[in-house]
Design a protein that fits this description.
Mor transcription activator domain-containing protein; mainly alpha; single chain; about 100 residues; Homeodomain-like_sf
Length: about 100
Amino acid sequence: MDYKPWMDYIKPEDMPNDDLKFIAESAGIRSALALIFCTPGLTVSVPKNAFTEVKERYIVGQYDGRKYTINRLAIECGFSQRYVYKIIKKHLNASRQPKC
């Protein structure tokens, strides 16, 4: 998207619909404009838990066996301690399975 000088005059209330107005207010005018000009006509769905798998890989990679780390990872990733334990247990069980 080529940013033009006239675009400096665009405000969130100038957005063509409420979804883009919300994006302009929360992520910035340029983000909303990028969606408008780079993806016209597309319907975009934003998943609530878009990076769960990435967070799980991060947890498995960072876990060092300490409860302190469980607490830190739970806070960093927005998960409960119980869910962090579940992720680690799932990974440990998967790594113990014999590979054929």
